[in-house]
Design a protein that fits this description.
two-stranded antiparallel sheet; six-stranded antiparallel sheet; 166 residues; 8 strands; alpha+beta; Chemotaxis protein chec
Length: 166
Amino acid sequence: MPKFCGQEKCLVDANGRVKLSPRFERAFREEGAVEVVLHCLPEGGLGVYPPSVWNRLRAAEEQTVLKAATSVVARRQLRRFGAMTQSEELSNQGRITLPAGFRGMMGLEPGTEAVLVGCECGIEIWNAERWQAEQKRLWEHEASRAEAEMKADVAAAGWSPGQQEG
């Protein structure tokens, strides 16, 4: 089974930390991660990645670095990634401290119910209410894609609604 799959509920503790489930903690440790990379996602969750995965994700942005001297867009993109990314240590108890600035942006203040969501290459930490809304958007998107795919298949077959097979 892939390492970073499934969902687990937890609470953000009084110190702004979340405790990983044993399987997520084990997955990070198997990746050799004593330190994890936190990144604020535009959708509203907080991505948590082993450094090796983060480095692969960011390798695609090498062109952005090269364009930074001449492109406002490239500089803004680098600024967004730089400001919205931070490394944190995974404690011996499997806890991650969420930086105070990130907690406010992500709705993960102490006492908040959170959901740890596997995203195959790491996990995402979501405010439980935001995660529920995101799941709804995911299902609506999938239904919309399925409908478009069905229409395309029907059109490619030359069949029209109301036409009977014969």
